[in-house]
Design brief:
TIM Barrel; binds zinc ion; seven-stranded mixed beta sheet; binds acetamide; 3 domains; Chitobiase, domain 2; 19 helices
Amino acid sequence: MKFKIILLILSIFLIFSNLISMENTISIIPKPLSIKQGEGSFTLNDSTKIIIANNPHQLKPIAEHVASRLRTVTGYPLELGTSSKKKENSIILMIDEKLKRVGKEGYQLRVTEKSVTIKSSSPAGIFYGVHSLYQLLPPEVEKNEQVTGVKWSIPCVTIEDKPRFTWRGMHLDVGRHFAPVKFVKKYIDLLSSYKMNTFHWHLTEDQGWRIEIKKYPKLTEIGSKRKETMGDSTPYGGFYTQEEIKEVVNYAKERFITIVPEIEMPGHALAALTAYPEFSCTGGPFEVGTTWGVFEDVYCAGNEKTFEFLKDVLSEVIPLFPGKFFHIGGDECPKERWKNCPKCQARIKKNKLGNEHRLQSYFVQRIERFLRSKGKRLVGWDEILEGGLAPGATVMSWRGTEGGIAAAKAKHDVVMTPTSHCYFDYYQSKPDSEPKAIGGFLSIEKVYSFEPVPAELKPKQAKHILGAQGNVWTEYMPNTNHVEYMVLPRLLAMSEVVWSVKKQKNFEDFSKRLNEHYKRFTYRGYNFRAQK
Ligand code: ACM
Ligand code: ZN
């Protein structure tokens, strides 16, 4: 009798500890909409196949991606097949119109002891299902070599998932510090693993013009180089050829990421004006920025030639980026030069603009019309609200959420990216325990707490909030190792802000899941800040 009781207690204990450990094995970030755990697991072995059930044209690249990742770590052949008959011991990818109910980025992932099935109404959803699958496998799946001694098991589970927002963004400033193509791809990999779908590539700055423009070669010959950085007496430079840009755009596309390029105007243009001073108000000469900040020399808004130049530049950039959004900056444009420029003043008078803010609005509206004629939608920082918003413009709200609120109320689309919650150049903890940053303080908990839809918006207005984005300004990130440190792990908090529904969010639960990701960062060769 006593023995039976002990046995009973022991088995209850085992069941519970098993349940707890099973709970621990599901650490997917961002948190899926619904997870129903089963019992048991599916284990990969040397006869597991990857089945493309239908739509081979769309699914084969994803199946090859899965096969390549899993072959690397397991050493198993993981042959691709197209028959949907033999379901056992397979990972099956299937386009299923019924899954339209979870949108085109939504998916269903079902793991039984016999097979794994990922279904979606579109390839994007299948891709996200695959990334959830990787996160269900042991962290060694992230290694770039064959790993022995690991049981490649996936817990039985049914996941149904879809994103909350359509704009799930991360930004990177390559103007202050250049990021080579190899790193940009590594960054894109990271974004896609956490189901982000938008990469905002900030390509031009006072301190460097980073994209080849064939009609204006001096933009890179002169504008991509600065003689030093903050007095270090060391020349610095770098730019992307158009071929490299195309390569990155394709790489992103394969990972269901749209790149939003940013060509800054009318401010933050000192590198361009150093190359072509004739498009400034004073005529120069200038020097590519060697210190950080906001500079008074900006594009002359009274000179027709400035608009011709910008249209020429945009005409070369637009075809490189197939996405519908195009960012033109618009932030931090001092008006001093315009106030003292006869051409700018003549424009204000002729067009009865009244002041320099409305001259900026005139400038942005002209560019907006041009972009629209090329099938693009203009995005600008929230300063583009000043002096009147261009019709159809999308506002990126960074100086708080007020600009975004005003724009949404005026029926304009908005991406929320306030400094308070979205600036990954801010310190992650106390400055004296961190490498030098630009300032501020943004803990991962604060990022996680961000709610992109302000409470004061009515449901109809709230629909204009497309999503949110983390911004990575690189003044104090001299190398890409440092970029990774600033982005990880805060990116994961942002991914849950933009993907997961509000009621699924819980910081304690997130933190537990996050602990399971550090090993993955290490195996993938990412630098990161471990939360203490
Ligand atoms: C910005 O941070 N100047 C948009
Ligand atoms: Zn001027």
